[in-house]
Amino acid sequence: METAWIGDFELVRVVERMFRSPAQATAVAVVTPEREMTARVGSDHHSTFEIGSISKVLTGMLYRDVVERRLASPTMVLRELLPLDGYGDVGSVTLESLATHRSGLPGLPPGMQPLRRTLGFWIRGENPYGDSLADLLLQTRTVRVGTPRPRYSNLGFQLLGHAVAKAAGSSYAQLLQDVLGPEFSTPARVKDLGPADLTGSDRFGRPMRAWVGEAIAPAGGVRATIDTMSGFLRSLLDGTPRGMSALDPVADFTPRVGIGAGWITLEHHGRSITWHNGSTGGFSSWIGLDRAAGTAVVVLAAVHRSVDRQGFRILEEFVSPAG
Questions:
Q1: Would the CA dihedral through 54, 59, 65, 68 be positive or negative?
Q2: Distance in angstroms (rounded) separating the CA atoms of residues 177 and 223
Q3: Inter-residue contact 156 to 108 (CB < 8 Å)
Q4: Higher-scoring residue by pLDDT: 206, 157
Q5: In this predicted model, what pLDDT tens digit does every residue of 250-279 receive, in sequence order?
Q6: Exposed (0-12), middle (13-18) or buried (19+): which is 53, by Cβ within 10 Å?
């Protein structure tokens, strides 16, 4: 792999200044009304990155697509789609509340023993997920549903993704590929990975285990190449994907921050930005759109270190003053 940035000259010049010679594989794509650009270091066009919680915005679009096809409704509750009878209040949570992080569910189910798994992650770099859908449903037995209020929940988006897949008569992996394209992958096991799937690292350079698993896919288990993400950006700016309404805010997430179906909208330096970030044990990612300017950016990095600052700055750099 190349150890220096390669790609479109104008973008290479910008990312060299912002990333200061990253030691890990990194890729950036920018789409403007005039052109599409990519820049890469330590990776090629076939390298597949974990996109982390950017998976949630894909799931939000699947949800809206299923609703728009009248296969489900926003007020439908989980027990109508998943076998959750006798599981307490979890079955009464609505799809819309899950999509806007207002379900009252915790971030993770206590039944998955998150403390033990977190220790394994920090000490040995293990994958804290890896569960099947059946495992996930069992873990919800002890979940208590709290007051419906804005609260970021991985569990909520796991259940949302698998529920809307059931509504469509499909699996999550298949529905994702059917609606948003076959280039997105959701490996359930380590043996599903191929030579193009990058190995990520922590901020100290220690290799980390891949975050694979059927259950986690809708909330953080999707993988993609920079070319896949660049094409996705273009389609979003063109307004062509199914489930596009997921980008439009429908509720407040925090003061002055809106949320659609997974997608976050806020004002940054006087401009409305629709975005999300992602982080796994060995990867970080960021996606953002200035829809009024017709410009979008994605950053994928094979290291557990936030790329939010770079993402916002690159987007600002390429937004036309007249945009």
A1: negative
A2: 12
A3: no
A4: 157
A5: 999 998 999 999 999 999 999 999 999 999
A6: buried
